[in-house]
Amino acid sequence: MSISLPRWIAHRGGGKLAPENTLAGIRLAASLSYRAVEFDVMLSADGTPLLIHDETLERTTNGSGKVCETSDAVLFALDAGGGERIPRFAEAAALCRELGLLANVEIKPASGHEVATAEVVARMTADLWRGAEVPPLISSFSLAALEVARDLAPEVRRGVLFEKPPADWRTELRRLRAVALHCDADLLDDVVLAEARAHDIPVLCYTVNSEKQAKMLFARGVSALFTDRLDLFAH
Ligand code: G3P
Ligand code: MG
Question: Are 104 and 180 spatial neighbours (Cβ–Cβ below 8 Å)?
Answer without folding.
Answer: no
